[in-house]
Amino acid sequence: MPLLALHAVSKRYGALQVTDNITMTVEAGQTLGILGPNGAGKTTLFNLISGDVRVDSGRVEFDGRDITTRPSHQRCHMGIGRSYQVPQPFGNMSVFENLVTAACFGGGLPEREAWTVAWEVLEQTGLLAHANTPAGSMTLLNRKRLELARALATRPQLLLLDEIAGGLTEHEAHELVEELKKIKQRGVTMIWIEHVVHALLSVADRLYVINFGQKLAEGAPNDVMKDPDVQRVYMGIEA
Fold first, then answer.
1. Which of 82, 84, 172, 221 has its CA 20 to 30 A from that of 90?
2. How many domains does the chain have?
């Protein structure tokens, strides 16, 4: 039984069909990479999985349970954590306070246990030296790390990463990839939307390509990247 299953999921805004009959499964422990041109519907897909947006039709299942109508906070308590493309920390709070808040309200932990989880996540993500730093004063790399850390503090079974490498230098992206590999080794299932393709390919087990809200291709990374339709639509290469 897959950890996550989407069955013919669709979402429309007025006349615009943003997500069109998407069906996919993600096995526990797997990393699924999501590719697609800007406006393809990738972030909307995440919003439908996390519960930030309701589906118009179709079904969302997590860990064998139908969560189609469950709100986002319940899905987070069940084990779906996510980062956002633009980091959204509580800027006037310290890094540590951000993580305790995530562990308490996202992970449903009592405060004392949340402190323990926050310290563990600080160590895992290389943010221990910044524990008392106001989140709003962090560099872009460390804000990205904090965005990842806040999602991890909810203790997710499924981690949704939305362009977490975007805007980073080559060296910074490499550091982030190494952190994600360690998270993967701990058994966390991940779905990662990313335009930094080489970073994505170094972690993903499978790729799922979306165009105009529909599936364009799916499969092993090397096979998908060689697909003529993917090369034409995503990379602008005419076969």
1. 172
2. 2
